Amino acid sequence: MESNREQAERCIEIAAQAFKEYKTQRANNFLNKAERLYPTQEAKDLLEKVREFDNDQHVRRILGCKNHYKVLEVAKDATDKDILVAFKKLALLVHPDKNRAPRAKEAFVKIEEAKKVLSNPIERSSYDLNLSIETDYGFYENNNSFEYKSTGTNDEADEDLNSQNDDPIPKSEKWWEREAGYHLLVLLPVILLILIPAVVWGMKLLFVSPSIYTLTPEKTHLIRRRTVAAKIPYYVTKHFSEELQYYYDGSLRKLELEVKNEYKTKLTHACNKEKKLKEYWLEEAENSFNTKMHERVQRMKTPSCDTLNELFTDSSNQSHSYFSNIFASVVNFLHF
Predict the structure, then answer these.
(1) What are the sequence ranges of the domains in the chain?
(2) Which DSSP letter does residue 173 get?
(3) CA distance 336 to 323
(4) What is residue 134's predicted lDDT score, i.e. its pLDDT?
(5) 3-state secondary structure 211-235
(6) What pTM was computed for the model?
(7) What is the CATH architecture assignment of 2-121?
(8) Among 79, 134, 229, 298, which is most buried by a count of CB atoms within 10 Å?
(9) Rounded to an integer, what distance in angstroms lies between the CA atom of residue 93 and that of residue 99?
């Protein structure tokens, strides 16, 4: 037992030195070994300090990351499964219930946002497009902070403006200075702050039916399905059969048509954003006479537009071809 105690003390000394050198993994290993050999309060206290330091380091790393891939520590070609595994691993480290670091909540929100964006194919493609431009050309330095600075002053114009703003009505005759009107004016923002959310909530209850599906996995919508025709992924709850019967009279075709339209709308929005972004950088390249940059931007992909064309343009062409063939057959028959 005495030899165990001496070995434990030696382990604590090595751990303390490792902790001073910021080698927390080494310190943690030796402290755990000291606890197994001969448990002491000194080892427990030092182990707690090491863990607190580790927790703070995890939070600092996440808050210091500039893009979602670095936040989750995954590669740019990471699959949905890789992203989910990375998120769960980090959630265990920085969740406010387990991590007592002051900014743990901020870090947890940041990894949630990263997982949400990278798990959504449409948002991820748009994000990757922005990220590629930022990485290749460094156009987003200084966090897109632009300052407007006046090119000069015009004292006479300022004086004219001030003179026009002078109120010709005597202060004693202003209606809002009277007691009733004044108090109403003061309370008006508070009244609106209470009424507007209540009205919006009431309108939602009256006119908006709850969605029985989502295009991305949510807390209540985790069961993955695909539309029969276009194979568009969507997510439903475990009570899908009952909800389909209640809200869509059991018509899966009606639901999947709605899924298709919503997916098309989101793809169209993302595609327009990608096109505008590409056009912007092409114009920048032309204005700066940068041939290399112009060529690289021209090669820039627009994944949302590609998906949109693949899923919807082909189907419309097929439909047009089908009706054209029918029309041609009828004409040939009549001519015969």
Answers:
(1) 2-121, 177-208, 215-335
(2) G
(3) 20
(4) 64
(5) CCEECCCCCCCCEEEECCCCCCEEE
(6) 0.43
(7) Orthogonal Bundle (1.10)
(8) 134
(9) 7
